[in-house]
Amino acid sequence: MRIAVLTFMHETVTFLSNDTTTDDFLYPGSPCKGEALLSTRSNASMAGFVRCAREFADVELVGIESPLFPKTGTGSGWIAREAFEHFAGIMVRALTAQGPFDGVYMALHGAMAVRGVARPEAELAARVRHAVGRAATIAATFDPHGNEDEAFFASADLGFCAKYYPHYDMHLQGERAARTLVRAIRGTYVPQVACIKVPILSPTVVQWTGAPPWMDVVQRALVWEARQPDSFVNVFFGFPWADTPDAGMAVQVTTDGDLALAQCIARDMASFVWRQREALVSAAQVHGIDEGVAMAGAAVEQGAVPIVIADHSDRSGHATWVLKRLLERSMKRVLIASVADGKLVGRLVAEGVQPGDRFDEAVGGMADASSGEPVRISGTVLAVGEGLPGGDGRGLGTWVAVGFGEGNVLVVSAFLMQIVEPSQLEKMGFQLSDFDVFVIKSRVHFRRGFHDSGFSPCILLVQPEQPFLGTTRLEALPYQHLRLADFYPFGRERFAP
Ligand SMILES: [Zn+2]
Known about the structure:
Number of strands: 19
Low-confidence stretches: none
CATH topology of the largest domain: Rossmann fold
Bound molecules: zinc ion
CATH architecture of the largest domain: 3-Layer(aba) Sandwich
Mean pLDDT: 96
Helix content: 25-40%
Structural class: alpha/beta
Number of helices: 13
CATH superfamily of the largest domain: Response regulator
CATH class of the largest domain: Alpha Beta
């Protein structure tokens, strides 16, 4: 049994001004193929797939040349058409040259947005189908932030979406994809899929599945999977910063040969989600920057440390709003990780920056209105590092840590840096007990290490008062490819799945 394995993933913020280009996917280790792809540690769903597929003695996996997640992370906009064509072309040529295949596994995200391609994942599936022929079985895994509808299944057979946010179960969905793909190839599983779009659009910061009502949605999907053996229930939360026609929530249900059952479960899930709509879209409390920083100051005085300030809205990584406010309030013992400023980091590296150097620079801002003004920081370079420990392996580039004020540290990074575990900061060389406040750029992922672990008693989600591109106030965003009024809570009142 020969199975081709490939990946092409991005979570595209189409409102960012910098397009994602071919070059953004090129760095040491990306693209890769063969064993290098199959053993990459950067992709949990693929790792789960490979581990499980290799338990079958008669399965041969073929790693098809694929780009890994772009080095800009989620800090870049529309994927250039040329980049999509370039990598899709490489994959299709490799599939044709190295075939025939019994199956194809694609590790996808679902919120990729490509200029001029309305549904990139479905388009990729169509091209893969054309390359491998009708007899092959095509399976994929998705991120819960995917914007997907039924179009993907016009060409593909199976899809498995992670259920949790933070995305704890990516590897598990990869394992399920492997087992079910092998069965489908053998003919002992006949996928029947039902898809329903649920017209709810919500900012990702509210979508934490560690508490109701999002936890309730996950739980209901798990109950259906428990009640009906061989059923798989995907709930896409959707990604509202990709301005695409298939944005928003969606339910996909796959059963073994029973379309009526798939439709029944999909209707139940969709109507359950719709009934929870009011609670779903208002599940997180987000503070203005000033209010959030003031609350952090009060919490320090009360000893409720360590405190996490998460600027969920910074999509470029350059935002300086929190940093500026911390300086104005003369806060102490704060670690800010990070403010992105690729130009500054590039210049410092060219100048041979070293620990101990004096640092007096304007940092961050300027990417667009959402990132604010550069902030002048005077201090001392404490460390110069490379990449993000425990991160996703992409070429995140150099970062520079600067000590300033009374026990404060600012990390200046080349790209948007999302810290999700305190241990990452320790591996960067910081002593966690040196800080009362941790300022990070993350929406929900950080709860993995800072909240679910019990690390921080005080989590403060913040965003600028103005409705910049990362705002929870989606009505302020210049959508062109979807009509906001079609969604709850922006005008949509009725929905009958
Ligand atoms: Zn996600």
